[in-house]
Amino acid sequence: MDTTSVVINSTIQEQVYQILKHEVINRVFQGGEQLKEAELAKRFNVSRSPVREALHRLAGDGILTIIPNRGIFVKEFTEKYIIDVLDLRYILEQRGIQCSKEKLTHAAHDELLGMRAQMQELIVTGNSSVDVHSALDTAFHDLIMKLNDNTFIAEVAEKISALNSMFRDLSLRSPERAIESQREHIAMIDTMLSGDIDEAIKIYRDHIEGTKRRVVSEFERKRTLTA
User: In this structure, are residues 194 and 116 in contact, taking their beta carbons and an 8 Å threshold?
Assistant: First the structure.
């Protein structure tokens, strides 16, 4: 077997996968839009094989949908699907908060303080950039997941993070909500670092429930517009 060829093909597939993942998450493609192997292979100037592998990996991540005899499409999220993702996220991140009492490393402690400073700066300056808030929101929740220190949870968390990024605009649509979210994050950080885990979990539960209410409200708004 030509191992050099295998490594090169693997590298190409990984590059295509990462580019497409970034584009799908950042809504370069619309929900329900079909991704065609031939067109993507031509765009990337590669054979169809690495494109096919990348698309199937993204389907495994839950952000694309394979429809037999039709093709591969960007996933369209239902209200229930989003709520289900948020429920699972709550279970795993709650565990991460609990683990922080015993497993908070110096590096994680410093990272939380660094994020807190960034959050406070956004609040003070009134920065309303959804992209900036989203990036910090992702980094914060990814760190909470890492506090679980569990390989299998880490694998699931990666998929949850990608899914959450695709519908985060439902909960961070307004500058006011983005700022409010950062205030809630700061309260979580403060209570975690003080060792008041029960209060941190309570704040987090309210945080997630608020997100769920906004998701429901947004779907209701869309239903009203299309009625």
Answer: no
